[in-house]
Amino acid sequence: MVPLRLKRFDAALIKLGVDRVVDFAEVLDLDLMEMAMSPLQRRRFRAAVAVDAQPTLDTAAMHGGVRAMPEEELTKSAVAALRGEDVLNLTPARWLALIRCENFVLEFEELGVESVLDFPEVAEDDLNMMGLPTLHRRRFTVAAVQVEELHLFHKERDLVNEDTKPMGTFQWLKALRLGFFIDGFQQLGVEEIDDFAEVLMDDIVDMGMKPLHRRRFQFAVAELLQ
Q: pTM for the full model?
């Protein structure tokens, strides 16, 4: 930022989540205005980004500069690194690395993320508590939407090919990606699906369920009771 006479904004850009040159292209005009950049400073910043910002993961764009993107193009950019990947079968760590959020792998594990399918369940409050900067939260959110859309597509396709036989008690847990807790529910006394409605928060905490597990279980039980 020194040659551009924008040195004073280094701290604000770092706080926003700029970790590497490619991140500058994701900075919005609103971000610059909130930093109190003047029109001339914003113009200077944009001109530099158009020349210098090079993507590290989107190979299709590696042969030329990246222009600063308007907000409506952020979604395309955020998932560009996932092109060509079997997204639903990536490990959480690999998925986070591809969207340049690899510094938060441990925080997501502690939240209860065990599969890429868990990412759409992560709430904005979770991201804030983990300390994800603004740019990371934007990238994460739009990439998580892609995961959800892919999952729904595969789920609908699989339903067409499945028999409509009733689901067993613990098949229900496996479908919620909570099969690890089958023994705990059996010890608690769960024998039928209806028994899950009697399970208390203290019970699932004692089983060692992490926040995402508990949220998923409670949401599914609420749907079960409808």
A: 0.68
